[in-house]
Amino acid sequence: MGEYRHLTVSLVSGCIGAEISGVDLSEDLADGVVAEIRGAWLDHLVVFFRDQHLTLDQFSAFARKIGTPGRYPFVPGLPGHPEVIEVKKLPHETVNFGGIWHSDTAYLERPPMASMLLAREVPAAGGDTEFANMYAAFDALSGGLKDFLRGLRAVNSSALADVSKTREDRIAEAGHEAGEGYEAVHPVVRTHPETGRQSLYVNVAHTARFEGMTEEESRPLLRLLFAHQSKAEFTCRFRWEVGSLALWDNRCAMHNPINDYHGQLRVMHRITFEGDEPR
To answer: Which positions are annotated as active-site residues?
Structure first.
């Protein structure tokens, strides 16, 4: 762990995640504070804050300290704040938004650098989110498999059935049709543009096959990788409270919102950040 002058940083697990305290994100943060937040985020892949009851303006202002807010291609943003989308599950719904292990919108040519989620309403129990360290997942593979994977690229699609159904209600609620699908080819092993570290960059929600192979040919190795990358030793789990905020790095981490709170309301606000083309 690095040294911090402006923050208190506490580990959430042995592999990924840290909770940051001692900072009020509603304030106009000094450059030194932002640099420490960003440093902790790069070190721990996901950072968490408690008791951050931000207005939409304050939420967006903090986001702009971290990066450039982007747009989600399927659900429109909130009025006056197109960069903020509402992620919610209503009491009568049984499928949650994004309820499968994934890295956000890997089917785009330039997937988001990061995502940030702010809890507005949470269930009495349940609705936690898991995060997984893709540096650690890659490091744990054998040398021979690492070398093989470095030569592969994967086709990522927005149309895979398991992830499509998790956003259907939000698209319909916004009065939109599902619209066009997205597909992008990215390296299976991604080099982080800021840390220089290599990570596994496939996920069960979006990765359909390896480039140059059929889905049937790709399936056995993809199944192995999907099972490997979500092993408990690579993960942490975060319990939300109203005002909790999470910031995670989509370039080297996956997340999984757990769908265990049927009959209860969960409302979150999300901002994603413009990213680069994976290499």
So the answer is: 102, 104, 255, 270
Span 83-101, pLDDT tens digits? 999 999 999 999 998 899 9
Give the mean pLDDT of 268-276: 98
pTM: 0.93
123: Cβ contacts below 8 Å, ≥ 6 apart: 261, 264, 265, 266
Place of tokens 């207005």: 55
Which of 156, 153, 165, 45 has the alpha carbon at shortest distance from 100? 165
Give the pLDDT confidence of 41-84 residue by residue, as tens digits. Answer: 999 999 999 999 999 999 999 999 999 999 888 889 999 999 99
